[in-house]
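Why run this: before we spend reagent on co-expression, it is cheaper to look at a predicted model of the complex and decide which construct boundaries make sense. The entries below are exactly what would go into the expression plan.
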Amino acid sequence: MSDTQSHSAAFVRTETLPQLPPPVAERGAVKWVRQNLFATIPNAILTLVSAYVIISILSGVIPWIMNGVWSASSLADCREILVGAQGACFAVITERWPQLLFGLSYPSSEYWRPALAYLLLFIAAAPVMFFDLPRKLLIFTALFPFIAFWLIWGGTILTPLIALIGFVAGYLVYQRFVSGSFALGLFGGIAIAVIVWSVAGAFVPETADENAMLLKVQSRDLGGFMLNMMLGVTCVSLSIPLGIALALGRQSSMPLIKWISVIFIEFIRGVPLITLLFVASVMLAFFFPPESTVDLFLRVVIMITMFSSAYIAEVIRGGLAALPKGQYEAADSLGLDYAQAMRLIILPQALKISIPGIVNIAVGLFKDTTLVAIISMFDIVGMIRGPILSSSDWIGVYWELWGFAGVLFFVTCYGISQYSQWLERRLATDHR
Amino acid sequence: MSSITDPPNEAFRLSMLINDTRYRSLTFQAIAAIVLAALIAYLGNNLIQNLRQAGLNISFDFLGSVSGYDINQTLIEYDSQSTHLSAAIVGILNTLLVAFLACITATFFGVIAGVLRLSNNWLVRKLMAFYVEIFRNIPVLIWIIIIFTIMTNVMPAPSAFRGDDPDASMLFGSFAFTNRGVYIPAPIWGPGSLVVGLTFLASIVGIFAYRRYATKVLFDTGRLLPTLWPSIALFFVPTILMYFIMGQPISLDYPALAGFNFSGGTQLGGPLIALWFALSIYTGAFIAENVRAGIQAVSRGQTEAAGALGMRPGRIMSLVVLPQALRVIIPPLISQYLNITKNSSLAIAVGYADVTATLGGITLNQTGRAIECILLLMLFYLTISLTISGVMNVYNNAIKLRER
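The model came back. Tokens follow.
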């Protein structure tokens, strides 16, 4: 066959040609640029405009950062070192570093304590955030609040110890009775814990704080970014159980319970956080017994916890509503009572759906902790606005300080939201 | 459910309160009511005792007394001899003003950024993602303070406009951007301006009527009437005609430099501008995410189906994609408006006299009426929130998918 052809045709190519590379405009960087930056004329104009914006911002910011002065004692010093050149005065951050992080009056010899608590926070949060870690680590997570309390406030170790013993006793009683009846377990546990606290609290001597291992620090001496972190972490963790209770209450078939929950949630969601902080600073004291003194930090924690629990309740309600009705019916048909159905079937699934929403609320709440600056607590915003910018050395150093605060918040919040997205992908086990 | 054939017909025992589902919910509610009543009684008792110790009482009489402080930016007549009540009303109007302005501009920023985040252009996409992330992850309080600082430090002082060769000059000779705020021309309403205004309103009504008529013609006969050019003509022509017929009754009062400051025109104070801009650009980042999610929620099949019907891209967008995207976008958009209103209470950080700063700030500190002031403040915000969520519910019901 091939023989006859080779004789009859003048020329027949017997081997394939080597492949040519695609045209220049259709490959590599050129193709990418053409497709992504200059596809059409309006697109090209947009590209040029945004390139101009980016370049003009960078050309201002980069030299400013590069020329930054990192050690000087005042703004005037900075200006002398810079001799007229454009440059940042980061010296304010290095000089006021402890104040920015720990506030004005936290004793400087004790800075290691909040720093250590901050490091331990990561260890405590790890098993909650990453499910692959050994479950034994959760024991440390449970101990962390007491350790952190002792580290930050100092004073006698008896206080956190008694609190811990109360919780352990309550938990043991709960474990003992929960298989019989959830209500019995819960209320029995609470009762035992309260008994332990009040009995053991009576044995703590008044002078226990004086010769304690760690120096006692007053709540009003807390400040800086530490205050934001403490408010954020405390209030979010306290508001999750409260939010679950409110969400279940709102779904309840009992009208009284339902309406209490609805009114609470809608009231809190309807007013700005700042009015609730006003309540904490000037009004809440009226509602405590006359002889008691509840310090501002605790009052703020109460109000912010109420605030975030209302929002978290709405997120969890969304999760509960998203569950197929069959799950509720299946739990009923197994003969589980309400508490068992919720604890074993409904809540584990509903909470899983709600995690991204809860993380969003947590990020928003963490940002909102800066509002305490308005009721004159010295968190990082309060520190910058108050003592640092009004000191004669650093008056007028706006960009460096606000930029620093912005970076701190950006790193934290962006990190958390990236984690939330990772978690969402990780938990996506649904069959949609 | 109806599997129990003969209900237990025994005498009532006390344990049935817990164990019998017929009575259990009543028991629980009774317990909850008792706990609630006890809590309220406890708190109320504490309150009464504390008030008696401090020699205070609950009374709203202070609203009628002279406030004795000035407010730099007011929408209604107000001076230091006015009452605390009118100070509160000034504050309420200022809150509504900044919230209203910020809602409009935030929507503007948000829609642009949201649409551009879906652009084919890589650079624009990344730039908008950067904008959204940086504003969403830094507290709004910090943004408000930063923008106020920029306002007061970067803008020229009014004195810079002075002299033969000034450092700063007014935009178009009528807008002055200073570190004390922005001065803009103010309209002066002469006699006959009412007629012009009414003509303008009538032409707006006319535009809507014409558009309805065009739709009706389209549905009845299939004929497509032009709407764009007639609308534009209706918008401008009658009003301008009437303006000249009435002898140009509306004129502008331009701001002019007098002494150390500008006089004439309207002053938008620095705090107002800073708060307005900060709220709109911060909330704009959130709205951008809502807009993006809404557009992405419309499935590609819709676009393709409309294309298969032979529609042009512009009509696909306006008749097919947007109506469906808006259904997703508008509920979160309205809750962002609610957030703007609530965040405008941060005005106190830059000294803008909103209701939190007047009623919850100066009035509270002057009169010491903490409980009354805060209750009124909460009542105001609660009213706004409930009104907006009521509107949202009506809207949600109106656009609900009619499913079979």
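Chain A touches chain B through 54 residues (CB under 8 Å). The domain at 110-427 of chain A is CATH 1.10.3720.10 (MetI-like fold). Bring this page to Monday's planning discussion.
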